[in-house]
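Task 17 of the worksheet. Students: predict the tertiary structure of the chain below and write it out as C-alpha cells. Keep your answer in the requested format; marks are given for formatting as well as content.
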Amino acid sequence: MTLRTATPDDLSRIMDLERASFPTDAWSPAMMAAELASPHGRYVVDEEAGRLFGYGGVRAVRGAADADIQTIAIAADARGRGRGRLLLADLLRSAAERGAREVFLEVRADNPAASSLYASEGFVEIGRRARYYQPDDVDAIVMKLDLEGWTASRSERAAPATNSAGWCG
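Model answer:
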C-alpha cells in the first residue's frame, strides 16, 4: 500500500472508483476537481503497481477547530484489508496538523462496514439526517471524533514501555 497526495492527474481514476463505489450518488467530475484543487482540503490516493485501490479526502481549514471527512472509497475487491483504516488515519493526521480538534463525517446508514471502521477509531454517532443520500432515501449517520484524544491514544500506543525506574524495556 502506498499513500500519496492526490493530484489533478488522478481525477479520471478517482472518478472511475467514485462511480463504482457510489453508483447512485457519485460526485461529479467538476465537484471532485474542485475538492482536489482546494487549499482547505487534502486528498490522498492508495496506489500500488499503478492501480488505484482507494482515495479519501478531508476538509480542514488551517486554524479551524473542526474538520470534515469528505469521502473515502476503497475498490470492492480490496476492502477488508486495512486500506480504509490507513486512509482514515492519514486524513486524521492531516486534520490535526492543520489545528483541528474535532472531526465530523456522515456515513450511509446502510454501510455497516464503514460505520464499524469509524466507531473502532473513536467516532461516535451524534445524530442522523433523514433521507440524506439521494436518490436512495438512505439516512446519514452523523459522527464526531475527539481528534485530540485520538492523537493522544496513537502516541501512547507508539511510545515504548517503561518500567517504574523510567527505563525502556
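Marker's comment: The two ends are 31 Å apart (CA to CA). The CA atoms of residues 109 and 139 lie 5 Å apart.
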